[in-house]
């Protein structure tokens, strides 16, 4: 039985509902764990899971043991993390301040660091679980926060202001879609199992698209934000055609981000 880990966010529970419910069969069954993205990154680094959703930035440190699948990830245009603050101001105002991040190994933190470097600013980072970031900004505990997941759609309701769209910055910087997360499979399982898992995830996503009502209860059971409109917007934003197959453009985007993160050797994606 393979150990599979992904986040409780609506895009992941939408994609994986078919496999979790058994509607899409996996021979031998799956031992499924749902956890925060940074916790998943840590478990991947410890080789605790056979198949795991990871931040693309974190993938740079595990590609000796894992290979990335072409299906199941989060990638696209206009989907990147944002920097929010209590005031409407430019990011340069954060120089010398403390900023909350949703984990040091997240793609969000890598993008934030690259953007800070380009702008010539230095900040102190404070790691938090992603749903603690906006309350910390609101309370004044930190000067700003890097927001991911459904926070992209709810920050204004908390009275916060967008200081920078890191996805937009990446797109202008590279001309490529922003690769947020990917599914990694242990290399020791072999290319055949990796290819089979890739196809199983594709079928799980296709089943969810065919019958979105069928996975709604599973999604709401695990979602941080229970508002139906926010959940639907989350899925529309983060589940894209790249989630079915990253394609050549998507692989190029991942390779560029991995290069920025310090990985430059070897094949990142499974050969299909």
UniProtKB/TrEMBL annotation:
InterPro entries in the cross-refs: Menaquinone_biosynth, MqnD
MF annotations from Gene Ontology: carbon-carbon lyase activity
Top-rank taxon, per record: Bacteria
Ligand binding (substrate): 53-55, 107-108
Pathway participation: Quinol/quinone metabolism; menaquinone biosynthesis
UniProt entry keywords in alphabetical sequence: Lyase, Menaquinone biosynthesis
CDD domains hit by this protein: PBP2_Ttha1568_Mqnd
Pfam families (UniProt xref): VitK2_biosynth
Residues at the catalytic site: 149 (proton acceptor)
UniProt key word Lyase: yes
Record flagged with keyword Lyase: yes
Catalytically driven reaction(s): cyclic dehypoxanthinylfutalosinate = 1,4-dihydroxy-6-naphthoate + dihydroxyacetone
One GO process term, biological-process aspect: menaquinone biosynthetic process
Top EC category: lyase
Family matches, as PANTHER family: 1,4-DIHYDROXY-6-NAPHTOATE SYNTHASE
Function per UniProt: Catalyzes the conversion of cyclic dehypoxanthine futalosine (cyclic DHFL) into 1,4-dihydroxy-6-naphthoate, a step in the biosynthesis of menaquinone (MK, vitamin K2).
Similarity-based family: Belongs to the MqnA/MqnD family. MqnD subfamily.
Annotated protein name in UniProt: 1,4-dihydroxy-6-naphtoate synthase
Organism: Pseudodesulfovibrio profundus
